[in-house]
Amino acid sequence: MLRTRRIVIHSLIAVFLAVPAMPSLASAADRYRVNARLFGPTGMRGQARYEEQPKNGSLQRRFKVEVERGTPGAIHQIFVNGDNVGSVLVGPLGIGKFELRTPQHIDSPDDGVPMPNSFPSLMDGDVVTVGSMNTTLHDD
After folding, report:
1. For residues 36 and 67, what is the distance between their CA atoms, to the nearest angstrom?
2. How far apart are CA 51 and CA 33, in angstroms?
3. What is the DSSP letter of 21?
4. What is the DSSP letter of 108?
5. How crowded is residue 31: how many other Cβ atoms within 10 Å of its Cβ?
6. Residue 133 pairs with which residues in a beta bridge?
7. How far apart are the first and last CA of the chain?
8. pLDDT tens over the chain, length 140 residues
9. Which of 34, 51, 111, 115 could form an S-S bond across to 106 if both were Cys, CB 3.0 to 4.6 Å?
10. Are 119 and 63 in contact (CB under 8 A)?
11. HSE of 5 in the Cβ direction (CA atoms, 13 Å)?
12. Taking the CB of residue 75, how many other CB atoms lie within 10 A of it?
């Protein structure tokens, strides 16, 4: 009886190890992301992030810039590899946010602005400039 139980247990373990795990449809491994921190001469700082991942049968893309400690009311132009992609307005608390998203993945007005089809897929080494701050994106 004990020998039979051991054989069954060992057989189950062998089968379990031989069957590959089913991948998640939207696992973290499917997501690609690059980001970087921004620092300015006036104490303003922030971050830039680009990510893409499969979602509901299409590619969701998102480019986000956030700044803090900025001068309230200031508008800073945003450039990616020298091309102007938008601007960020610093609010009354010194914080500003800008976001582009794939249009079909925008669920509410707070989800960002529709990303133009011409917006490039960003990679490690691409340069983002926000006002007087610039940075180089790196793999997450």
Report:
1. 12
2. 4
3. P
4. S
5. 14
6. 130
7. 53
8. 444 444 444 443 443 334 343 333 445 568 999 999 999 888 999 999 999 999 888 899 999 999 999 999 999 999 999 999 999 999 999 999 999 999 887 887 777 899 999 999 999 999 999 999 999 999 97
9. 111
10. yes
11. 2
12. 12
Question: How much is the pTM?
Answer: 0.76
Integer angstrom CA distances of residue 72 from 97, 107, 119: 13, 28, 28
Edge-to-edge order in the sheet of strand 45-55: 113-114, 96-101, 58-68, 45-55, 32-39, 138-139
**Token reading at 87:** 């601007």
Phi, psi angles (nearest 5°) of residue 92: -60, -20
Sheet with strand 83-89: strands edge to edge: 83-89, 75-80, 127-130, 133-136
